[in-house]
Amino acid sequence: MSDSGLKIVEGTALSARQKKDLLNRLARIEGQLRGVQKLIALAAEPSDCDAVAQQMAAARKALDRSFVQLLTNCIVNQSDNAQDLMQAQAGAGRLAAMLDKFA
């Protein structure tokens, strides 16, 4: 079990270390979002919206960095695990489609 209580499954998509790193990042983002919720609940003055916006932007950037880390890990792992050029090209095609769909 990892610190988050999730069982890390062995596989070729991501290493156990990569999964743990991503889960830790997501746990920090989760904490940021809980903080944003508290800021919203306590907002009383117009200037409080600046603090909320700043924290929301920080959480969004952190999530974007996690997405990039995920893709980077996938690229490295797929190229390392490819048996031949055709398999590497197929993996690159899947990653390109993922970027097109989600980025």
TrEMBL record:
Belongs to the FrmR/RcnR family. This is Transcriptional regulator. InterPro entries: Metal_Tscrpt_repr (IPR003735), Metal_Tscrpt_repr_sf (IPR038390). GO terms for biological process: negative regulation of DNA-templated transcription. GO terms for molecular function: DNA binding; metal ion binding. CDD domains: CsoR-like_DUF156. Coiled coil: none annotated. It holds the Pfam family Trns_repr_metal. It comes from the Bacteria. The lineage of its organism: Bacteria, Pseudomonadati, Pseudomonadota, Betaproteobacteria, Burkholderiales.
